[in-house]
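Bumping with the actual sequence this time:
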Amino acid sequence: MKRAILVILFAILFAIPSFSQKTVAVSNIALKNKREAIPVINAEGNELSLFITDRKNIYLKKYNESFKLIGEEVFERPKLQLKNIVEAVTTSENEYIFLLSDSFKKNFGVLKINSQQKTLEIITDSLMFSGDKYVITLKNNNEIYVITIKENQSNFGIHKINANGSLTSLQYDLTNEDFFNRKNEKVSLYKALLHRINSIDPGRLGLEYIETDIPNSLEKTSKKAKLFVDGKKIKLLLDQSSKFSQIVTLNLDSIDYEVNNIKKVDVSDYRSIKSNSFISKNNLYQLIASKERLKFAVIDISSKKVLKEIHLNQDDSIIFKNTPIVQEGGVYVNHREMEKTKKFLRKITASNVGVSVYHSKDSIQITLGGLKEYKGAVGAPGFGPGVGPMGFATPTFFAFSSYAGSKSTYIKCLFDKNLTHISGDIPSNGFDKIDALKKEILDENTETIFKFNNYLIYGYHYPKHYSYYLRKFED
């Protein structure tokens, strides 16, 4: 009787229309102890394979594009020395490879699963990176790439994980290119990728993986080195320098590359400036701020033409904002609002400034602000998606976690496609709706968030129902 009441209550919760969501799949499953959910999307067949793990088993739920269950298997979880799942892809209709690592990303291996033959194979002796330093892992279509760099050099490596566990490696020699540190001194690419919390911090390699078709928090976009995927190319966006935004474009199929230096607008008159930028739809969005003024520009990357430029002085009203000036994550007050532009500029220039851009239907949502970072904070650079404090996390789930819990000072602005300011409230996005739902459920675990068929999919296990739910959200 008690369980029946819970089912009815949950059915009522599912029916709430304000979240613009729909339950698309429910699977009966009871999980034990350690739990992870790893979605694997077949980019060619438009199918979803969801692997759900606990201490004993690996459960496979396979869905077609309409979320109809078309296959399921249970595998005994193997005992692995490399316990962290970094990424996973499907290499054929029934075969999957999982990239494994230790906690320090120094040793790697591959777990192969064949769902048709019901076999598991572990390969640990072929993934050697010749002493290079690990930077980040990314997934493009049905392929996994591991990115490395030689210490204190500008030799960049991209290593594709093959279906048999071997590597296909490309080495990019950028020795003749100039990169810059925060003092605008010429340094190696390695040093341009070093992230430091303060002047005495020796730094660690940091390259933040950005998905531009989802909302991104300032916790991610305020990083000085970011990675964007553009088809079969990747773009490194470097913002250590106060003079240039540097875009390094690397081809995943060859060793061709391009370095594009885009000048930061009118920085010569700034004292103690802070700057950062963001790439979206072949445009570069630059934010440059000091205690006295702020400049925001949108620049066409190909032509370097300035499409939009906003100047703001400390005594001006911010007429292009659609929200109050918000400060979140305070020690005593989690949310506060302020009115004066002078205070806004003082807050963000005492932080790492950042700009975030999200295209939603017919509008562009832009967040401008800064994030105060502390040494030892959760979500340190260099880890990114993959292995997180809660186990495996997709890049989208990692972005959601920082979006829902970032500590920052910011304004949100709304523009149309011609970059003309739009008045009114900022519309809720998919992350906002997932966050609202999570506050209602309260007892979910084994969560994941990913993009499938242009929807945000939120997956979670609800232990009282012994079930795993998939729900889709849209803006």
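The tokens above came from a reply further down the thread. Residues 1-19, 376-384 have pLDDT under 50 and may be disordered.
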